[in-house]
Model the fold of this input.
Amino acid sequence: MYIQLISIHGLIRGENVEMGRDADTGGQVRYVLELARSLSQCPGVEAVDLCTRRIKDKRVASCYAEEIEELAPRCRLVRLPCGGARYLRKERLWPFLDDYVDALISFTRREGRVPAVVHGHYADAGYVAKEVAAAFDAPFVFTGHSLGKPKLEYLLQEGWTRQEANEVLNIEHRISVEQDCLAVADLLIVSTRHERDQQYREYQRPEDLRCEVIPPGTDLVRFFPYYEYDLPSPTIDERFKQARVRMAAELGRFHFNPTKPLILALCRPDRRKNIGALIEAFGESKELQAIANLAVFAGIRDNIEAMPDNEQKVLTDMLLAMDRYDLYGKMAIPKDHSSEFDVPELYRLAAASRGIFVNSAFIELFGLTAIEASATGLPFVATADGGPQDIVENCHSGLIVDVRDRQALTEAMLTLLTDQNVWRECSTNGVNLVREFYSWETHCARYLSCLEDLVGTPATAPVAGGRPAPGRRLASLNSLLITDIDNTLLGDDEALEQLKTIIHDHRHHMGFGVASGRALELVLEVLADHGIQEIDVIIAAVGAEIYYNQDHVLDKGWASHLRSKWHPERIREALDLLPFLHLQQEPHTQREFKISYDLEDGHDADAALAAIHNALTGAKTAYSLIFSHGTFVDILPHRASKGKAVRYLAGKWNIPLERVATAGDSGNDRDMLIGQTAGIVVGNHDPELASLRRSTTHRVYFAQAHCAGGIIEGLRHFGFVEQPETACR
Ligand code: GLC
Ligand code: MG
Done:
């Protein structure tokens, strides 16, 4: 089984993960890294690729620009580009996701392996996974991690307007993508019952959508029990030991009496983490202050004044509360710590001091920190709202409270800090039961057993007529014929029948497509009229649109690619003024990416073309102009043409250009005939193409026969199909 996991945003790397560097580099990054590594070690798993975005930006480490990073044997981090090179926060990635879909499809094709399952993490990667899974007819697994609807609800309560939420966070778009993912997912994986029942409550879920609660595992290598340091001859990685010394020294800078039990809090500086409640509880309880020290690690900071407003507010509130309650000597607020080694050591230092971990967030969807603390033997106090419910039920390693109730919070802390029996029981349970319920082995075993049900059984997403997804089909081809329609494919009915037979007989390795100036609707009409059914690709509107198979699935990657620098209004404004051009009026001739005119009869073509270019230069817009049959003037985005569409297809589906035969008769076919493709010019071609005959750089064959007969002749010439038996009349 080859598994593709996708997690687009944030900064992901195998070593020294930069947790908490910003809002996009949090728990999800750890989750996907550990899932990928653990899955790759399971029997039956051939390989795992964790796909993310490639970033080349001076503001971040250079390793994020490497295409491939080995995470473990048979497990790679694959970084593919989308939306330029700069690091972008996740809300700004939406417009570029179709490019990512393309990049991943072509990467997959180059690697020559079709995924058994594609699993998207968070809405953005959910979208990508949904598209890639559809292309390869693989099951699509979705994990939301966090969801837009509850977030929007929260923001509205906080006084945001819907408009602000959309402008800053694109929240309604995110919600609609989440909804789309749920509509077609084959499996939804959630971490807690709370997530399944509460977070997804407001979404439409198809009745047969399978939803599994599979909590993530914990990195038990890092979160070993605190008492291992007390063993006679502990074998502990030097880096942990160094971290321990460093963290103890760091706390020593703040605490008068460092031997007291430690109350440890560790979270992002986010208002929802409700750090204030903990400081107030500590500040107002003389008893707590007498028996324990407090340490709050709220993210990593250099200069508070340079931080985003919301984080600045949380941190200054912290400092003010510390001052108000005069907690100097009792409370630590260190600026810096690393997630890799410092965090587990902090838990272990706290546990060794008989301290506790406190997470006073209003709601905790999962509660990873409570689980990690438990794994080291450090009991916790956390909110009763959300994931910690499951943790307490499974592991009995801490206490959950209503964190809005100051008294309850204080009492829970006091119970653990003063009752040795309760502390010891929670500590031992944590060490033992986290290993049972929250290990990645347990996670993977359940994950794979769900997948086994999905893989092998055909994807549940309805594929009309039982046809394979375009990706599966295209992945099985080693060559492709793309032909123009009017005066090339059509025009000689007898030869067309012969060509249809040839296409049918070679179908197992040669794909068939058309490229036309016509719009999709008109292409379909003409194909139906001539009984042509076996079609893999339709390049319509002179290359402005690409569709796949009889279901005409639109290639959204191509559309997204064309959108760059396309300003149709400027083009219309400039050209509508030219008296010798008449905007085409027939239905379907004007498209999102195609503006078409007819040149007035009898007007000098060269002069007209010069005037058009001149007008368009003045309009300051990129474009490509395609002139054909001495009368049609098509203006397309600068990246569009039949030839560019053919090259895009060859790259995306990994069919060498030399194995793509193109056939045409007129000017709008020119750029797909030239270059490395096996170009076939039919005998009845337009004079526009005559100049290609003299070209030595291109692979172009001028057929004697007309129309479909010329195509057959060309296919034989280039060896795409065998020569006929020589015994003729
Ligand atoms: C088809 C289209 C037309 C286009 C011409 C040349 O006839 O309908 O809009 O200008 O091809 O590409
Ligand atoms: Mg033609």
Notes: The mean pLDDT is 92. The radius of gyration is 32 Å. The pocket of alpha-D-glucopyranose (ligand 1) is lined by residues 517-518, 542, 584, 589, 596, 628, 632, 634, 668 (CB under 6 Å).
